[in-house]
C-alpha cells in the first residue's frame, strides 16, 4: 500500500485551519463575554482620607459604609457612616443604594478593599476604598463621632 504525502499535507493543513478557527471563535467569545449583560462592572477607586473628606464635603449623594465591627464603630466613626460589618455585607447588600457614590472604610483599609470586591458586581454607581481607613482619617485630624 502506497502512502500519498499530498493527502497527508492536505489533511494536516485542514486540521491546522480548523484549530485556528476554533481558537479564533473562543477568543472572540472571551473578548465579548458580558456584553449585553444587565450587570455593570463597577470600578473601585482607592482614595486617601483627604480625598474621602473632600468627596464627603463636596457631594450630596454619598453613602459612607463602615465595614468594621460594632465595637469599633461605637469607639469612633465618621459622621453619617452606615455600619454593615464585613461578615454581614453579602446579606445586607440591599441596604446600600445603587444610585449613590459609596465610600467604604474600615480601620486600615484591608477589610474595606475586600468589601469593595464583594460590592463590585452589584450595579453600584461608584465605589471608593479609603486607604488607611479610619486610622488614617483620625491621624489627619478629621472629625469622628463617639456615642
UniProtKB/TrEMBL annotation:
The cross-references to Pfam families, in alphabetical order and at most eight, read: Rhodanese (PF00581)
SUPFAM superfamilies cross-referenced by the UniProt entry: Rhodanese/Cell cycle control phosphatase (SSF52821)
Residues covered by the Rhodanese domain: 58-146
Which domain of life does this protein belong to?
Answer: Bacteria
Full protein name: Rhodanese-related sulfurtransferase
